[in-house]
Specification:
Number of strands: 31
Strand content: 35-45%
Shape: globular
Helix content: under 10%
Largest sheet: 6 strands, antiparallel
């Protein structure tokens, strides 16, 4: 029997003959027994004695879709096992077989759900070496019902399987979705050699605005020059390297990221960047690595260095066109702190909290610094402070899309989110 507990985990029914069940589940109930409601229903059955059904991976980033895989044992000794992957977008009432060009060869998978009838899948052959850190990004075609996937981006960064990850759904993708603009994603991939193989010495950041149909390198920030002549912006997208590129909710078109400018992504971030047109153009926020946060629907962006002691907070009120610095003093010797994170209570707030410690000793005392920005804006925004913005020249996934958002130069507090 397959059941879901209060941590939204799915239990494995085991090998051989088994029946997977689903039961309606209340996500807001902490106790597992009370969370299970209604009558269980069969979602999958394997009776051939050769089928092993692993627990489905559950993704709630955009749409609630369940994933499950069958491992079919070989019919004769020495033959390789095969694999079938299924997904369900209706809570397990029906399942669709995912069909890839490599057939039923065993692979590792990581999925990205979207607000549209589209799935993206990072896929890596399980026969690759244990330290292989790349795969292929596929995109579903002809709707979710068809189950057909086509390759979108080769050599996409995909971390090796961790010891705690089960064999099918493993690895982390260097891919980030735009929070407000479906079809817009950033990805890191290895540059291809002339023979099509990955150049493992060069990772580059690419952007798509059409759900993976086309990918393009990022332009350098305005005024940037590169000595080797190959000048592109590259940003950190590995979720293990906090903070990864950030597209905040309620701030349409805004990206914040750490990275560098050049031919390839460097091993260590060199600068912090901001974009207010969903990655089409970029500005330098700082010449060092900053932790960042966004508030007031994008009208207030703040950042602070994380690799040195500081008593400064950098902020912008015009989406990166200009930056200002707020200096603070602490009572500890030196009056500085090592910042771990920046917090805000909501996207409509006008305040931040810096969280960190008084020195670089990891056992040092913690410190919180509260910043109020109630008076930095001259007034509340009015109708004349908003403008129409057309992402991707107004065409997004075949639709004419126009957003109404605050003008970057309007020095006003934004009391409502952007509307489409």
């Amino acid at each position: 029997m397959l059941y879901q507990n209060s941590d939204t985990e799915w239990r494995d029914c085991g090998d051989g003959s088994c029946t997977l069940m689903k039961q309606p589940f209340k996500h807001d109930v902490a106790d597992s027994a009370q969370a299970l409601v209604g009558t269980p229903a069969t979602v999958f059955t394997g009776n051939d004695g050769l089928t092993q059904v692993h627990w489905p991976w559950y993704d709630n980033t955009a749409r609630r879709i369940f994933f499950a895989t069958q491992r079919i044992a070989p019919e004769r000794a020495g033959a390789l096992a095969t694999q079938r992957l299924y997904y369900s977008s209706d809570g397990g009432a029906s399942w669709t077989l995912a069909q890839f060009s490599f057939g039923s060869q065993p692979h590792h998978y990581q999925f990205i759900t979207t607000e549209h009838d589209v799935l993206l899948a990072g896929v890596r052959d399980v026969s690759a070496s244990e330290d292989a850190d790349h795969g292929t990004l596929y995109v579903s075609s002809n709707g979710l019902e068809a189950g057909l996937f086509a390759p979108s981006l080769h050599h996409v960064r995909m971390s090796p399987r961790e010891w705690w990850q089960e064999t099918t759904f493993a690895g982390n993708l260097d891919v980030e979705r735009s929070a407000e603009l479906d079809g817009v994603l950033l990805a890191n991939r290895y540059r291809a050699n002339a023979d099509g193989s990955p150049d493992l010495t060069c990772v580059q950041t690419v952007l798509t605005t059409d759900m993976g149909a086309t990918w393009n390198l990022l332009p350098p920030p305005a005024g940037t020059t590169c000595p080797d002549g190959e000048c592109h912006t590259h940003v950190r997208l590995d979720i293990e390297d906090f903070p990864t590129a950030y597209s905040p909710m309620d701030a349409v078109g805004l990206w914040l990221a750490q990275g560098n400018v050049g031919r390839c992504l460097s091993d260590k971030p060199e600068e912090t960047y901001i974009s207010n047109d969903s990655g089409k153009t970029w500005l330098v926020m700082s010449k060092e690595r900053l932790i960042f946060e966004v508030s007031n629907h994008g009208a207030l962006v703040a950042g602070a260095p994380t690799e040195r002691l500081t008593n400064e907070l950098t902020y912008t009120l015009d989406e990166g066109r200009t930056f200002q610095t707020c200096t603070f003093d602490l009572t500890n010797p030196g009056g500085e702190m090592l910042v771990n994170n920046i917090l805000t209570r909501s996207f409509n707030a006008k305040n931040f909290i810096l969280e960190g410690r008084v020195n670089q000793d990891r056992f040092a005392g913690g410190v919180l610094v509260h910043f109020e920005f109630d008076d930095v804006h001259e007034r509340e925004c009015g109708p004349d402070d908003y403008e129409e913005w057309r992402p991707n020249d107004g065409c997004l996934l075949g639709k004419h899309v126009v957003w109404q958002r605050r003008k970057p130069t309007a020095m006003c507090s934004k009391d409502r989110k952007s509307v489409v």
